[in-house]
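Researcher: Good morning. I'm working through a list of sequences from a screen, and I'd like to move beyond sequence-only analysis. For each chain I'm collecting a predicted structure so we can compare shapes side by side. This is the next one on the list. No need for commentary yet; just the structure.
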Amino acid sequence: MDYELDFEKPVHDLENQIKELKEANSRSGLDINKEISALQTKVDHLLKEIYDNLSPWERVQLSRHPKRPHTLDYIDFLLEDFHEIHGDRRFSEDPAMIAGFGYLDGQKLAVVGIQKGRKTQDKIKHNFGMARPEGYRKAMRLMKLAEQFDIPVLCLVDTPGAYPGIGAEERGQAQAIAENLQEMFDIKVPMVAIVIGEGGSGGALGIAIADRVHMLEYSVYSVISPESCASILWSDPKRAEQAANSLKLDPNKAKELKIIDSIIKEPTGGAHRDFENTALNMKKRIQKDFKELGKFSCEDLMEARFEKYRKMGNTTTTEANS
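Model: Good morning. Structure tokens for this chain:
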């Protein structure tokens, strides 16, 4: 059975009707293509109506959709001759963090991204997309190698957050992320980051300092997950929907605050409904960015990256009470 979000139920009901009609059509030999076409038009209109009016919580659910494409899906589709590197040269390997080199239409690229996994064993292997300190250190090892060989860096973000386990904290989770934030400002090659699903807190930011930052249309980017926010504010993770409404986690809000540079279009209904077109939209954006960034001198690239982050967000000035 296909996975179904609550707000998608009317669409799935119509799609099931279409499927039944097609099966009946093939068995009976009757011409009911007109009825099928009318139902398909209704599905298209309903999809547009639903997805043009998603609530913040519905966006969160969609960003976590089990069929949503993950980092390795995009790597397999976009890159040729991809070779992964392993280990942080300090402790161990972290399968949640994918890092390696490949070619995008002949252009060398270093790619780092967080992989969630789809089936149960995959999810366990990749720790549900929650990277450990060794994952962030491996990511930085890749970026330093890319800098050494003058290879642009692409970062694909999809994580609920960095792994909060005791072992990860003992091995310096906060330090690993903080060092990445500092070091990424000084990587002397063009860098592009794309939030492809969840962009959760410091776990996302640890690989998302870049010259250009984008979000897929139905992704989210937030300082904390709605469930964690609700747990902290109200001691009740069931109020996650209420928290999502306040977190400004959708791409439009992120663009307003200058946190991202653009929103990459997805097909109506999400990337899982048309993976190929989503990946091609990403490819166009990536190639355009690296073409533009390649014209910058190293000094101008560093200065522009620094200024980009200095101007993020909104600030207000208030007078102190006397």
